[in-house]
Write a structure and sequence with these properties.
With about 375 residues, the protein is mostly beta strands. It has three domains: about 120 residues, Immunoglobulins (Immunoglobulin-like, Sandwich), CATH 2.60.40.10; about 90 residues, Immunoglobulin-like, CATH 2.60.40.10; about 140 residues. The chain has one helix and 27 strands. The strands form seven sheets. Strands 12, 13, 14, 16 and 17 form a five-stranded antiparallel beta sheet that branches. Strands 18-27-26-25-23 form a five-stranded antiparallel beta sheet, with no helix packed on it. The two termini are about 55 Å apart.
Amino acid sequence: MRGIYVISIVSIVAMGCSETTIVVPVETPTNLIYELEPSGDPAAPAGLLLRWDGVTPENVSVYRVYSSADPAGGFGLRGETTSLTFHDVGRPDLEYFVSAVNLDGFEGQPSISVVVDERLRLDDPSWLFGTSLNGAIHLAWSDNAFATAPNGFKQYRVYSAPYSYSSDDCTAWALEGTTVAPEFLVGALPNGVSRCFGASAESIEGWESLWAPVWLDTPRPDARNIVVFAGDVDLNNSGFRFFDDRNGDGVAQFDELGIVMAGNRSDIDFRLTRDLNQKFFIEPVRSGTRVRVYDSAPVADITAIDIAPEGGYARLAVEAVPQFGYVFEMDGGDQFARFGGLRVTHVGKEYVIFDWSYQTDPGNPELVAPFGRR
């Protein structure tokens, strides 16, 4: 489309007067598109960015952007710019178009308008699940937003917030990052400090979906391939304690976690014994320490022991079986219990190899359901 303006020039010649009309076109911007800026609140984007293809540079002085919150109410001038983009801060209007103004101040025809259509919003992830790790949380969620609209999908957005125990609430949400995969690793987190996590889907236009159900999780230390001997083979390396508070400050330092000790000590969490049939047993030792088998079937990894079960703990020895998981409930010296996880990876003739995890946060069973999901 082209707008025109007319210049009339009067020429005086010997035989009389004549008038010459010159038609000068004003080009029209094309390919107008928009992209929203997600804010975390699907109902209130942070802003909108318009882009378009411009006209011949030497023929334009400024572009005018018009918008309408209600088509029945008409369009109004939103702003002017000399660039080929326009940033509209805050909740956007419903419809926009752009026109060009040439150097003489004449305005051309409007571009084809764009409608900011919230019906392009994607489905929200139907579930969100976290796995407690050492200084990190691995998040995974349903991929239904991409599956239902692969051509309209742009990415997932991941949010986190500190968790307040006093108010039982998640505060000060912030963006952790974005990903095209339905999973995300949140790293560099302090162990024993709970955080809330959320995930949403973003369309190619910037529409943000509703959030998946918020997940609450707590990183905890762990380690792999720990060797503990049967007491009759190597007494000095037949005991284990998840947290040995040598400094007495209640803060778990690296060298105070996962300590292999002598099996005849009374302050260890468990010792490894074996019977006449050469079967190995995990025997609770320290007062207030109890153990239970995590599940009736093998567990794939120590990270599969994510939340300590409610109940079922006892001060009875349990057989150490390869691939099986075990959960410890221990007296923390205060009103709160401490929880630890253990997965046996190998049972030899003289020793057992296992992976372990320990939650440093008092009373926190993140490794009694439903603590993890809010």
